[in-house]
Every structure is written in C-alpha cells, then in structure tokens.
Amino acid sequence: MGILEGKRILVTGVLTDASIAFSVAKLAQEEGATVVLTGFGRLSLVERIAKRLPEPAPVLELDVQSNEQLDTLAARVGEHVDGLDGVVHSIGFAPQTALGGNFLNTTWEDVATALHVSTYSFKSLAVACLPLMKEGGAVVGLDFDATKAWPVYDWMGVAKAGLESCSRYLARDLGPHNIRVNLVAAGPLRTMAAKSIPGFKEFEDSWPAKAPLGWDLSDTIPAAKACVALMSDWFPATTGDIVHVDGGVHAVGS
Ligand SMILES: NC(=O)c1ccc[n+]([C@@H]2O[C@H](COP(=O)([O-])OP(=O)(O)OC[C@H]3O[C@@H](n4cnc5c(N)ncnc54)[C@H](O)[C@@H]3O)[C@@H](O)[C@H]2O)c1
After folding, report:
1. What's the pLDDT at 20?
2. Contact residues for 97 (Cβ-Cβ < 8 A; gap 6+)
C-alpha cells in the first residue's frame, strides 16, 4: 500500500517530462493517489506529457493570473474528484528583464508579474482549492532557498523570499482547517523554467561540487519524493516549514 493510498491530489506546473511537477504526479500515482493536473497555455503539450504518467490524468486549464479560471477551479476539479487531500504549487515565472543580473533596472511592471505568478498565486491556488478540502489536507510549494542573494536569480529570488513568508501566513490561516502548508526548497534542476534564466549555468557549475551529498541537475525525483512525503500522513504535525532537497548546500559555507 502506497503512502498516498486513497488521496486525491491536484498537481499544477506540468509542462514537460523534466518538470518537477511531472515527477510529483508520477510518484503520487505510484503511491496510490488519484491525480488531477492543471496546465498553463500549451495545454495540448501538457496533455501529451500527461499520457506518459502511469495512469491517465485529466488536465484542466489554469493561468494563476486569471481570476475567472481560479474562481471556477474548484467546480472544474470537482467534476473529476469529490474532494482534495493535497495541492501542489509548482509554478514560477519572471520576465527576462527580472533575471540575469539586471536587478537594478527591472521595472515594477515586470517585478509585479514575477510576484503575481510566483508568490501571490500560492495563496490564490490554496484559497481556490479550499472548498474541496473540507477534511483538511496538505498544500506544498516549490521553493529555491531565499535566504541569500544568488547570482542571476534576482527578482525571482525576491519572489521566492515572498513565497517563504506567504507559506508561513498560509500555515497560520489554514491550520484551523486542518490544512498543512509547506515548501520544498530544491537545488537547481534542468527544467524549462531554469533554462529561461540567463546565466543559470553558474548554478550548474558550482552546486554539485558544493553539495555534501552531491547533486544531479537532471534528477527531479528527490524533490518530488519530498512533496509526496509532505502530502502523506507521515508529516501530521509539520506546517509552515521548508524542507531542503538540495544535496545539503544550504547547510554549508562555500
Ligand atoms: N528548476 C529549478 O532549478 C528549480 C529549483 C527550485 C525550485 N524550482 C521551482 O519549481 C517550480 C516548478 O518549476 P520547474 O523547474 O519544474 O520548471 P517548469 O518550467 O517545468 O515549470 C514551471 C511551471 O510554471 C507554469 N506557469 C508559468 N506561468 C504560469 C501561470 N501564469 N499560471 C499557471 N502556471 C504557470 C508553467 O506552465 C510550468 O508548468 C517553480 O516554482 C520553480 O521556481 C525550480
């Protein structure tokens, strides 16, 4: 019996089979969950990728900048499952001008887009799913350690710092609903989102050498395992927390 047996899980953020969300969906199914996916924009691509999962999973459209799509999400998810036990936020975006060493020149409009999609949406998604989580459950988001100013990560780093704070406030406000809210802070992984960061190679070159456990830039399974574990019954009293899945880089000096 898997650790998500009988659980109903919504997974956002599948774009390719390299997406962290793809591994989360795959492992969740292998651990017994019923999975519903959301995709943004290229839905036919997401549907094609979804076919590579062990079980077929419906794909619903969700642009977290669309209030209409957020307002109808619970009803649309409710056509496939009678409730949710887990929600995975695996969404991030920042305009090119907000990344890559342009920190001092980025306009508010571009910063606002990064914060809307990457930070505020954690709250929007959780609240949109609340009507389906009557028995409680778990919300998990994907983070990149925001305690430091990294090379090239720039306003995405600010967005992740906001995500970490947002997660704690959500934990405070959703705890009374018996909903746990946690983040998985992954090390760098070669996904579409990472490839769109100019200078991402700086992370690729240094991370594996710095990590006490080593680090495989192409392996999304360790981060996905942490997401699945946090949605299971094995973290019943953990909320507002950040689990680092980075080979240990956060723990050591460079
Ligand atoms: N790749 C890394 O190095 C790394 C490390 C730590 C954390 N993360 C985080 O993991 C999460 C998933 O990213 P990934 O690396 O798997 O890359 P990815 O490109 O596969 O996934 C990013 C997802 O965000 C979605 N998205 C973008 N704008 C959206 C919008 N307006 N509405 C809804 N969805 C939208 C995209 O469709 C895509 O599915 C992100 O939060 C990212 O910041 C990534």
Report:
1. 98
2. 105, 106, 107, 110
